[in-house]
Structures are given as C-alpha cells and as structure tokens.
C-alpha cells in the first residue's frame, strides 16, 4: 500500500486534489475529521483541553466548542502551542491506527491523508510520499472571499502565519501547482497518478 500525505496552505485547493485522487481510486482520510474525534467528550484530549483552557470552552452539549477555543488561541502563540501539544500527538495516534487498519485489510492500494499541518505537527514520517498543493496568492484570496466570505486582509494574515509554499516544497516529494482551472488541476493529478502510483510498492514508511 502506498501512503501519501497531502498538504498545502489555506485555500490552495488540497481538498480538490483529494477529491480527484478519490475519483482515481485512492482511499482518503481527512486529518481534520480525525481531529474532531480527538476533541470528543470521553477522549483523553477532552479532559486535557478543559484543564488547560477552562470549562468555558465546553458547549451546552458537553463537547468542546472549537469556535470558542479558536478565539482563545488565535493570535496567542503560547496558547496555541499549549493546545497543539495536547491534540497533535492524539491525532497522530488516530492516523497511525487508521493507516495500520487500511494496510492490514489488504484492500487499499493507495491511502491519502489530507492534513493542513502535516509538517508543523511532524506527521510527515508517517507517509511514503508527501504531496504539496500550491496556488498563487491572488487565487487564494479570490477563492476564500468567494467561498467563505473571508476578506483579503484576513486571508493574508493567515497566510503569513503559515509555512510558505517554498518551505513546503523543499520538504515534499511532489508539488501540485493549482494555478489554472479545475480541469487543468485534474489533468495534472491524473498524470501524477499515472507516473508515480503504479511504480511504488515500497516506501520510506518507518512510523
């Protein structure tokens, strides 16, 4: 089984690439959904987050209110690090379990994990290959304003707080440039699938 870690900055189009890879036959896992599970009441991270940030981050349903939590840590590097020190190792554990399960069942030939913070969290060594999706800043600004009603100034602030495309590319095996329309993006991904996937049976996976 070939494992691919798929990453990229906000608004780069990595979810589109994940969708295309799914259409080509890959099994796709969204690390953000694994993160949602990590925050659930009854999980170890729930207790740790409440202990670190107080009961005010708990909603009426008894679950962590990620919106409230986000407002606490946004713009506060110390609080953000305290949070990521809690949840990132737990998410890694969840990803490792899913990768092992897919490898053991023998039915999955290509497993893709979409993860925005793949490098920051140190998850890159979980995968045989790392694919990074990049897009011009002007396209990112337009896409997020159209899709999320996010103003350019907000998007620029978030971009500046992330790794740069250049930093990601230096650490990736494959760069997927999303600088045209979806048809061009699909053609690029299909070509990468043709060129790389059939030829990979062993990877650098070392857990």
What would you say this structure looks like, in words?
It is globular, with a radius of gyration of 18 Å. It has one domain (2-196): 3-Layer(aba) Sandwich (Rossmann fold). With 207 residues, the protein is α/β, with parallel strands linked by helices. Helices cover 52% and strands 13% of the residues. The protein has 9 helices and 5 strands. Helix 2 crosses helix 5.
Give the SSE map.
Layout: E1 2-8, H1 14-23, E2 27-30, H2 31-38, H3 44-53, H4 66-73, H5 77-105, E3 110-114, E4 129-134, H6 137-148, H7 152-160, H8 165-171, E5 174-177, H9 182-196
Parallel strand pairs: 1-3, 1-4, 2-3, 4-5
Question: Quick recap of the structure?
Answer:
This protein is of the alpha/beta class. It has a single domain (2-196), classed as P-loop containing nucleotide triphosphate hydrolases (Rossmann fold, 3-Layer(aba) Sandwich), CATH 3.40.50. 52% of the residues lie in helices and 13% in strands.
Characteristics of this structure?
Rossmann fold; single chain; 207 residues; 5 strands; 9 helices; alpha/beta; 5-stranded parallel beta sheet
Poorly predicted ranges: 201-207
Strand coverage percent: 5-15%
Overall number of structural domains: 1
Amount of helix:
40-55%
Q: What coarse outline follows from CA principal-axis ratios?
A: globular
User: Mean pLDDT, rounded to whole units?
Assistant: 91
CATH topological fold name: Rossmann fold
Helices, by number, come to 9
Question: What is the distance, rounded to the nearest whole angstrom, between the alpha carbons of the first and last residues?
Answer: 14 Å
CATH architecture: 3-Layer(aba) Sandwich
